[in-house]
């Protein structure tokens, strides 16, 4: 049996002995060797030195080392998925901790959320088919929208005259005005500090939840091989879907909290306290952020594993009725 010199991989000078019942030998039909030695009448405690046995052990070691190397390399590929996601999250946190102005980023998050809500409602049918009341109900959970569906219809003449782009532009203009009003009410410095506190809190909480999801995914991803699928490819794909869903949730929650959280300014205004930003929100929008993809096409029938379960439990489908 070969030894190793330190971590260099050089052949060692020590001599090692192992039993024929060792796991290494069981892989190479040691029972046949045992029967041969029993027939030869050798005692059980007698050392066996044979070129044939030594070569078999050396071959077994080589194969085991190759397998272990592949395992380590495979683990590294799985870790690389998390490393790329970690770089994105830590980059966002670094901006907050270094005191950078993230107002443009917050406005981008707000716009992405509102456009996604509009796309979710307008993915199918025409203007007269869209449920604007449901859309408005969802938008009110994000920001105090300043006009009603009836006012919008009166402005264009009829529901049929409304298209998705026009609807999105009207909502974005109204949201920008609401953001500027919020800034004038709180003050620019207070709002900047509020944005940093909210983003840091939401990032940390969502990231912790995401780590649990990724651990859960990795535990069972090896079973995909039974369906003739590469577990690593499936892990990369589903990991990306989970990460995208997490980022969407961060955008949505950040946009909502910036408008709706209660702010207390203490002292000379240098200390800003926001109540409830560390708690998971209980309100859920009538429209889900990811209800439609980027092409504006919503799908029906199959429910995504990461979507909310239709039963109303609040759990993800894969953790509720999709578990079976």
TrEMBL record:
InterPro entries, per database record: P-loop_NTPase, SEC_C_motif, SecA, SecA_motor_DEAD, SecA_SF2_C, SecA_Wing/Scaffold, SecA_Wing/Scaffold_sf
SUPFAM superfamilies in the record: Helical scaffold and wing domains of SecA, P-loop containing nucleoside triphosphate hydrolases
GO function terms (MF aspect): ATP binding; metal ion binding
UniProt keyword Methyltransferase present: no
Membrane topology field: Peripheral membrane protein
Cofactor(s) for this UniProt protein: Zn(2+)
Coiled-coil residue windows: none
Domain SecA family profile as annotated: residue spans: 1-49
Record carries keyword Magnesium: no
Localisation: Cell membrane
Signal peptide: none
Designated name of the protein: Unannotated protein
Source taxonomy: unclassified sequences, metagenomes, ecological metagenomes
